[in-house]
Amino acid sequence: MAANLVNALADLKEEEALKIVKDRLNANEDPLKILEDARKGMEIVGKRFADSEYFIPDLVYSGEILKEATELVKPKLTQAADTKKLGKIVFGTVAGDIHDIGKDIVVFMLDVNGFEVIDLGVDVPVQKFIDKIKETGAPIVGLSGFLALAFDSMKETIEAIQAAGLRDKVKVMIGGGQISEEIKKYTGADAFGKDAMAGVTLAKQWIGAK
Amino acid sequence: MAKQWEEMSPEEKQEELFNRWLSPKDPEGKDLKFQSPQAEKAYKDRITRIKDAIQMKKTPDRVPVFILPSFFPFYYGGITPREAMYDYDKLTAACKKFLLDFEPDGHLGTDMPGPGKFFDILDYKLYSWPGHGVPPEQSYQANEGEYMKANEYDALIQDPSNFFSNTYFPRVFGKLESFNMLPALTGILEMYGVAYNFIPFGVPPVQAAYKALMEAGNEVMKWVGAVMAWNMETTALGFANIIGGYTKAPFDVIGDTLRGTRGIMLDMYRQPDKLLEAMEKLTPLMIKMGVGAAQMNGKPLIFMPLHKGADGFLSDAQFKKFYWPTFKKVMLGLIDEGIVPFPAAEGHWTTRLETVQDLPKGKTLWMIDQSDMAKTKKTLGKVACLAGNMPTDLLTVGTAEQIKDYAKKLIDTCAPGGGYIMANGAFFDKVKAENVKAMVDYAKQHGAYK
Fold this sequence. Notes:
The complex is a heterodimer of chains A (210) and B (450).
Chain A: H1 5-10, H2 14-26, H3 31-50, H4 56-73, E1 88-93, H5 101-112, E2 116-119, H6 126-136, E3 140-144, H7 149-163, E4 171-175, H8 181-187, E5 191-193, H9 196-208
Parallel strand pairs in A: 1-2, 1-3, 3-4, 4-5
Helix pairs in contact in A: 2-4, 3-4, 5-9, 6-7
Chain B: H1 10-22, H2 37-55, H3 72-76, H4 81-86, H5 88-102, H6 116-122, E1 127-130, E2 133-134, E3 141-142, H7 153-158, H8 160-172, H9 191-194, H10 204-236, H11 250-258, H12 260-270, H13 272-297, E4 301-306, H14 316-336, E5 340-345, H15 353-356, E6 365-368, H16 373-378, E7 385-388, H17 392-397, H18 400-414, E8 420-421, H19 433-446
């Protein structure tokens, strides 16, 4: 099929992708089917990023095209998409650090790999992590940080998770900037990921082990 | 008679800038009086050691060692980052203690935190700083945003200065919002019509902005007075501030504080030609910025913090198309004026090494963060002096023994043949003092060239 939304999105053809979405909506196609194709396109984007074929600009651009496509589809949407998710992950940049690029990439990659990510944003207070873990029952927590001060914020967050009696209910991964095996030990995290794909691999292992 | 600057070759200009750095002047323009003959010798040995490492013509007496901190000297000196930005006496005292206790061959001076009150006066929005958006005990952080809109490339390209004063300033300085009313200076031409251009200067919001500017200027004079007095004092003690000024790669100019990361990445797809044109337009301006600072400070090293060219940020093809050409032009333009560009390759640059090694030998100094050092030495290290790679995580949570092991590895890998300066890889805040000391001591004890 020439007008293939999956490929148009995967190949980052903005105009083409949006035209297909409009045409399919005009043809009264089920909006959920269109979104499903968009999701498949994003899955390919994620795969290409994992294979170092795509880089950050390509992720950013694909996200932008998806956003525009979703805006077009939304008014026609009567029921929410019901996609099966692998599992929940509470994610955020730790207190004191406002960097979001690295976090957003990992969240993106977890999302396209089938996880339901609860993204708490940047400079997330310790208590907010605790509240969200309790509320969602997420078995995985991801802590991001670019600055060296994040080492201590991560340590404090993990200690607070422990103090709240949740430590054996969650696996904690950390990543970003200067994070290493040494910092993993320092903070008490279960693992660190050196890039976004490492985060996905860890999450899959942890969910699989449950 | 000595050659005039304009008649010198780039090599002679570089030699001249090193000579000026070797012979510092006091505020009256006379030769600076060192505190003792030992201090003078220490100073000249340090500059010579750094020069030999950079020029790569012969090995220095030993591997030089730099400490390139962010807010570390303030934590170490027992003051908060807030105090470092607002209390210039505390700032300079902490920085002096830092030098006396660690004795690096090269340091970054005292001006990194900047004058807090100055930022308050102008209501600077581009950053959050200690006590103003972040806690008093933390360093500052950038508030990324689209301070230039996607449709403003033509305005930037046609008249960069006007774009900065009339569009960018009103967005990043709350108190200069009324600068969007300023005239285009290129419209001020002849008797008839000149006066109309001055209408904005008669309206209260613009007048208030100018009052704020004067107040800001007064604050900067207080701060810079303290900074310069400290520079004189510590130079007289034999310490070498390595920074002659700074400039940036054009891609980072647009990607950091104008369009933002997301903005510039979308522009790469949606309006690549405009982006490329704007970077070309900024290139001579970035060269001029570095040349002016080096001339004013009488020093060859111009710092260039590199951000969005790192591994992962761009594909190799994107790097070669968007980042490298104008970055290289800026460096070559600086080198032509005798300057030693001092780029900091923050993060990982391992995949960029093949590309960035296309530079004349002995003309640049690279601060390397987490790139593979063996590979860096074999590529970029053939033509450029490397500094850094001592990891922040080790400095923060490691032991002095681990630091020594790592320092040994660095010397074994990078020192042979010269062209290496021991230093931390990334700017750091809170780390263990004994680890910083261990890094410096190791270079001094084990870095000698036989």
